[in-house]
Amino acid sequence: MSIQELVINFHMTETCNFRCEYCYATWDGNNSQQELHHSYSNIKELVTKTANYFLNDNPIKQKLGYKSVRLNFAGGEPVMLGSRFIKAVLLAKSLGLNTSLITNGHLLTNTMLSKVSPHLDMLGISFDTADHLLADSIGRVDRKKDWLSPQRLEEIVFHYRQSNPCGIVKINTVVNKYNWEETLTATITKIMPDKWKILRVLPVYSDSLCVTQQQYKHYITKHQSLSNIIVAEDNDDMWQSYLMLNPEGKFYQNSGPCEGIKQSPSILDVSITDALTHIEFNPDTFAKRYKSNIDFQEI
Predict the structure, then answer these.
(1) Buried b vs exposed e over 259-291: b needs ≥16 C-beta within 10 Å?
(2) Considering its fold, how many domains does the chain have in total?
(3) Strands laid side by side in the 243-245 sheet
(4) Alpha-carbon gap, residue 271 to 216, rounded angstroms
(5) What is the CATH number of the domain that holds 183?
(6) Range of the domain at 42
(7) Among candidates 288, 291, 277, which has minimal Cα distance to 230?
(8) What count of other Cβ atoms lies within 10 Å of the Cβ of residue 59?
(9) pLDDT tens figures, 31-88
(10) What would you report as the CA-atom Rg of the chain, rounded to the nearest whole angstrom?
């Protein structure tokens, strides 16, 4: 087995300007004041330990044979951290890591894009719907009911590509009970991302927005004209297939449907080798998520 790149997701903060009902980026007992971004020295220690371990020989590298490592900044909404987020990205790049961002896009002003885009190997934007009412139902709006419109999404992608012509654009869409009948073909075709990941809502804490497998497949099938960029990720594809660090530097994994999560001690307190023994990570499942696209004949 061999993959090009290992991805480690650092959920830098639980704070977010949106309130998506299906969000799984919450951690029992997390205290926002204990999030590592409050101290640059803590962020420096976390990113440095991550780079030193995963860029060098280790059991996961022996298993997967990856050539590079990408630190993916996620949340919550990491852009809310402003200069703290930018400094962390620059640090990761200086240590030899590739970098990426998963964002709801709402706070990606042109000023922020100009500062961070040249240093992001990939920009991932969460976009579930082109309809404001549906976005409100899902929770993809802020307190003023502002949202990421299709027009603003196009502007962000254009600006990123202007600033970083070699950068990769990815759109993440979570199929849920509110949007599974919607068609996003027009919006996705306009921006034409390098990858469109279509995920089935994951019931980590609640199943209130879940869809059936038939509804999920229906959504994918209606977008088959974009099959060359679609990567489908059903619930079984997600379990034990992500390396994730929470805002306190703890590795975590989802336990099971509506069963919450398991966490390791912080990697600031123990070695990464020790921390990884507290979670279940399956390299084989991780590798399967990186196949290029979906075979519609299997649906």
Answers:
(1) eebebbebbeebebeebbeebeeebeebbebee
(2) 1
(3) 230-233, 195-200, 168-175, 122-126, 98-103, 68-74, 5-11, 243-245, 250-254, 261-266
(4) 40
(5) 3.20.20.70
(6) 5-298
(7) 291
(8) 10
(9) 788 999 999 999 999 999 999 999 999 999 999 999 999 999 999 999 999 999 999 9
(10) 18
